[in-house]
Write a structure and sequence with these properties.
There is one protein chain. The chain folds into two domains: about 15-235, MFS general substrate transporter like domains (Growth Hormone, Chain: A); about 240-490, MFS general substrate transporter like domains (Growth Hormone, Chain: A), CATH 1.20.1250.20. It is mostly helical. About 80% of the residues lie in helices and about 0% in strands. It is built from 17 helices and two strands. The termini are far apart. It has a two-stranded antiparallel ribbon.
Length: about 500
């Protein structure tokens, strides 16, 4: 007993100062986003009477802004405000954004979203930057720390989804957004309480003079608060905003293709082509994945029998299927892959991308099958929705953890910044496409489940087969992709020898 306590005490003492605090900060900081992510479409359609298409479009822009601002957050924190200051500033915006949204009007929703998105979009990167700064580059504990951080984020999602579902059953939206406000405020309190141990380390901002620091701080604050009205204006016009973001994404893609074609190093050029092909596959995957809080949620609440063993399942609780699969399945999948590799199985990035797309396709194809077996009232059995989410989550386990590792492996050093940024941009673009797909779902005012089921079945079948076909295409491309990627490994071995 004493020995066990001693071992535990040594492990706790070995945690770098600040890393433990960031774990708990991550949990409470995630609560507000979990509420908005899982409730925005339902709040817009059921409380504010948006059409399904308008709510889907708004949710698409919500995701695009949130993920698109992540990249800028790292730059703003590291060079202007410090990651610690920007995180608190972002959480302050989230507090006011959640509180305004609780007001219950469309006008307050737009201002609330502008405040919340600016905060959440910028400060997510700050948490990761503060955590990575606690470790030296060669510190082997870094990977475990990020796994714990990822677990904390998923715990925050689980709690947020659970509470959101509780209030959704009675549509007590004001109380729900007040809960989000409290969660955001707790993140500020925990950060301030650990202010000293969360100071920035090794950032460009620390190298400037005090005068330059003050000037940059003022500029950073101006950018932070200036983004709010900008986001507010763009949210008023989600259609043109979505088109603008798609055009920007197309320009970035064109630039990457140009850089790849013109790149002189054949080895690096091949790896860049592999990156572009796999990124296209990931865009298909995430576009369907991000329909979960959007079109899939509308389908669940209107066309699925949500009573299980006499208990009504709130639509937000369905999102926790994903959370549980990720938390439980992640370590199990890692152990299984380790065993397979020891037995000589070759499991690599192209295989995992292809399998993820096929699993996503099967997840969507399960829904038309469930619709074909719906009850006399048109309601689909909950088990079909459950199975769909499990398949999608297994696909996420295959594709999500290796994304950033892929960039480190395939991106030439001179292009790592733009390729990392484009990878994050893909997630935002996927959110827009998810909004487009979700906008194709029938409006709930048009009829009951029996009337809308055929349209849902047609949409889900098209998306499911599309993802499956792209996955099969990647399977066929696996030998080609392996050849592109392996060239670099062989060259590295040659150079080392």
């Amino acid at each position: 007993m004493e020995r066990g306590l001693s071992v535990l005490g040594n492990k706790i003492n070995s945690i770098p100062e600040g890393a433990g605090a960031l774990f708990f900060i991550q949990i409470v900081a995630t609560l507000g986003f979990a509420v908005f992510y899982s409730t925005l479409v339902l709040y817009a359609t059921r409380h504010l009477k948006f059409s399904a298409a308008d709510a889907a479009l708004l949710m698409g822009v919500f995701g695009a802004f949130n993920y698109g601002l992540h990249l800028f957050g790292g730059y703003l924190g590291g060079r202007f405000l410090s990651n610690r200051n920007l995180f608190v500033g972002g959480m302050v915006l989230q507090v006011f954004g959640s509180a305004l949204t609780a007001g219950g009007t469309t006008e307050l929703l737009y201002w609330g979203l502008a405040l919340f998105l600016t905060g959440s979009g910028l400060n997510v990167t700050c948490l990761n930057m503060m955590l990575t700064q606690r470790f030296e580059p060669e510190d082997a504990r870094r990977e475990a720390a990020f796994l714990w951080n990822y677990a904390g984020m998923n715990l925050g999602f689980f709690i947020g989804f659970a509470v959101a579902g509780h209030y959704q059953l009675t549509e007590s939206y004001a109380s729900l957004f007040i809960f989000a406000t409290v969660g955001n405020f707790l993140a500020i309190i925990l950060t301030v309480a650990n202010w000293r141990v969360l100071k920035d380390l090794h950032t460009p901002l620390l190298k400037v003079s005090p005068g330059q620091y003050r000037l940059r701080f003022i500029v950073g604050l101006a950018i932070l608060f200036g983004l709010v009205p900008t986001v507010w204006i763009l949210l008023q016009h989600p259609g043109p905003t979505g088109t603008l973001l798609k055009v920007i994404s197309a320009m970035v893609a064109t630039l990457l293709i140009y850089l790849t074609v013109k790149h002189r190093d054949k080895i690096e050029r091949n790896n860049m082509w592999a990156y572009l092909i796999l990124t296209l596959g990931s865009l298909v995957f995430w576009s369907l994945y991000q329909m979960a809080p959007n079109g899939l949620q509308l389908f669940a609440i209107n066309n699925v029998d949500l009573y299980v063993w006499g208990i009504k399942i709130a639509p937000q609780w369905v999102q926790n299927i994903n959370t549980v699969v990720i938390v439980v399945g992640g370590p199990l999948l890692a152990m299984w892959f380790s065993r397979l590799r020891k037995r000589g199985w070759k499991i690599d990035i192209p295989q995992q991308f292809a399998a993820a797309l096929i699993l996503m396709g099967l997840g969507f194809l399960a829904l038309p099958a469930g619709i074909s077996l719906a009850s006399d009232t048109g309601l689909v059995g909950f088990e079909w929705l459950f199975g769909s989410y499990v398949l999608q989550s297994l696909g996420e386990l295959l594709i999500s953890p290796i994304g950033y590792a892929m960039i480190g492996k395939l991106a030439p050093s001179r292009y790592q910044g733009i390729m990392m940024g484009s990878w994050m941009l893909v997630t935002g673009l996927a959110s827009l496409f998810a909004g487009d797909f979700s906008g194709m779902v029938p409006n709930t005012a048009e009829g009951a489940a029996l009337i809308t089921n055929p349209d849902y079945a047609s949409l889900f079948a098209r998306l499911g087969w599309g993802s499956t076909i792209v996955g099969i295409a990647l399977v066929l491309l696996v030998p080609f992709l392996r050849k592109l990627i392996q060239v670099k490994a062989k060259q590295s071995l040659t150079a080392t020898a």
